[in-house]
Structures are given as C-alpha cells and as structure tokens.
C-alpha cells in the first residue's frame, strides 16, 4: 500500500515506518523534523495548515513519483502530535493535536482515501496525567472503560476520537483509533528494567503496561491489512505487564477493592488488548522479561 504517514520522525513513528517498509509498503514520512528512513521520502508539512495537508496528500512525494503513473495514497496513518504533557503550554498542545487531526481526516476523506489510522492514547482513560492518584474503574482496562481525562493532552485525544467517528459516519470509510500505551524502544529496556522489577509503583500511571515500539509497527500493519471494520477503537499493548511482581501482588498493592472483570494470568497486562487480537489478528512478539535485570 502507498501510505501517507504523519509523525514518522517521532519515537513511535520511526519504528512503525521501518516495520511497514519491511512489509513492502511504500511510505511517505510527513513531519516537521526530518528523519531519513532508507527509501522513505520525507515531506516537511505543518499539519495545522489545512492547505499544506491537502496539497501534500495530493502531490508527488519524490522524484521517483514522476517516472510512474500518478497514484493516490491507499492509506493515511496519523501519528503526528505534541506527544505528551509538559512540552508546551496546555492550550497549545490541545490546539495543535485537535486541529492537525481534523485537517488530516478532512483531506483524506475528501481525497477518497478509505483507510485511516489515528494515534490515540492510553491517557484517554484519565489515569496517566491525573492530578493525584486516579485508579481505573475496573481491571483489565478495555475499550469500554470511561474516557474522562483531566489534562489537555488526553482531552485532545478524546476529541480526536469523536472527530474520527464523525468522519467515518459521513463517509463509511475504515477509520481506526489506536489507544497506544507507553511506547518503549528496544534500547530502553536495559535502562528501565531494574526500576520495573524493584519499584513497580513507577508504572502506576501507565496502568502497569507498555507497548514495544516494534509491536506497535506490527499493529499498524495489521490495521492496514484488515478492512471493513468501520470505526473502531483499539487498545495497543504487549501481553505482559511492565513490572516484575505478579498480577496478584499488583492487585493487592495498587488495585485493592477495584473490580476485576475476569481472571488474569500471572503477569498478564492490565491494559486489555483482546479486541485487537480478535478483530485484527494482532500478535505482539517482543518483550522485556528475558533481558538482564541490571542496566
């Protein structure tokens, strides 16, 4: 597929683009910051400018495009965003994330691109960036859990999901929103694994979960290859938790009194990915437990 990928220079995007290229997709990286993936054209585009978005999505991406029949994009993957709290003013985070997502969805649907994947976030559940401690309503947290966040970043992601659903209702296209958990790159495990084993409380705001950046790329590929689901929201996580202690101890120490919807495995994730497995054949294959416990 020919894929218009926004945010391909970021922490999550660069791994996803690498995986998609390995799978044979023809990807264009749309970002403000260059990142030279082998064989992947780069276009600098301000996604808050709707004119730039529409023009870039409708234009050749490189000189190679001039030597073949003009081809529109088959899919759009929208990862670009201000990726967290504490990077700029709260209202700027909200403005950039909401406006850029509207512009991408608007251009893609008007150009007839029938597969759109939008990066949402674990933060929509209101735990990660809450003031003080907020615990989930129940565990494991699935896509039916309420999304009532307190912070501007997560608010922007909730709004983006509503916007995506509205564009899907208008067009009937496939638009999938990915509630991505804490993205961990392979080289980061040696830095984090000691703390994950010895101080599990540091993972509370991430619902004791994570997603390996390589498995996130696999998730995007599964979305590209699965048609006909309309509008869907998917949690994206690895199968295991991101702490060394077993599930029962996590519940006793951090989730005592929280309803448990079903029995959980010894180290099973508290951030349920069953829907992605069922509908997309998602199968994460990387993890941190076999690595050394010391950095």
TrEMBL record:
Pfam families (UniProt xref): Epimerase
Domain of life of the organism encoding this protein: Bacteria
Gene3D superfamilies (alphabetical): NAD(P)-binding Rossmann-like Domain
Keywords recorded for this protein, A-Z: Isomerase
GO molecular function terms attached to this record: UDP-glucose 4-epimerase activity
Its EC number(s): 5.1.3.2
UniProt keyword annotation of Zinc present: no
NAD-dependent epimerase/dehydratase domain ranges (all copies): 5-187
InterPro entries to which the protein is assigned, alphabetical: Epimerase_deHydtase, NAD(P)-bd_dom_sf
Protein name, UniProt field: UDP-glucose 4-epimerase
């Amino acid at each position: 597929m020919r894929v218009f990928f926004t945010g391909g220079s970021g922490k999550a995007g660069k791994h996803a683009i690498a995986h998609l290229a390995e799978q044979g997709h023809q990807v264009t990286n749309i970002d403000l910051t260059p990142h030279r993936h082998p064989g992947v054209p780069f276009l600098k585009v301000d996604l808050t400018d709707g004119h730039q978005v529409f023009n870039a999505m409708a234009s050749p991406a490189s000189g190679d495009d001039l030597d073949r029949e003009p081809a529109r994009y088959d899919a759009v993957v929208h990862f670009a965003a201000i990726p967290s709290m504490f990077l700029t003013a709260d209202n700027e985070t909200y403005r950039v994330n909401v406006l850029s997502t509207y512009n991408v969805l608007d251009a893609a649907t008007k150009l007839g691109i029938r597969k759109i994947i939008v990066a949402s976030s674990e933060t929509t559940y209101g735990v990660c960036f809450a003031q003080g401690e907020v615990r989930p309503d129940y565990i494991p947290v699935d896509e039916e859990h309420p999304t009532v966040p307190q912070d501007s970043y997560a608010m922007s992601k909730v709004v983006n999901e509503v916007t995506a659903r509205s564009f899907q209702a208008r067009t009937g296209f496939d638009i999938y929103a990915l509630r991505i958990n804490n993205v961990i790159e392979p080289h980061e495990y040696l830095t984090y694994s000691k703390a994950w084993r010895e101080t599990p409380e540091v993972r509370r705001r991430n619902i004791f979960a994570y997603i390996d950046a390589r498995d996130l790329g696999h998730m995007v590929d599964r979305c590209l290859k699965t048609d006909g689901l309309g509008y869907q929201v998917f949690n994206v996580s690895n199968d295991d938790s991101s702490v060394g202690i077993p599930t029962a101890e996590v519940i006793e120490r951090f989730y005592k009194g929280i309803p448990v919807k079903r029995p959980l495995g010894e180290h099973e994730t508290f951030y349920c990915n069953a829907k992605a497995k069922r509908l997309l054949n998602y199968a994460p294959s990387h993890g941190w437990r076999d690595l050394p416990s010391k950095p």
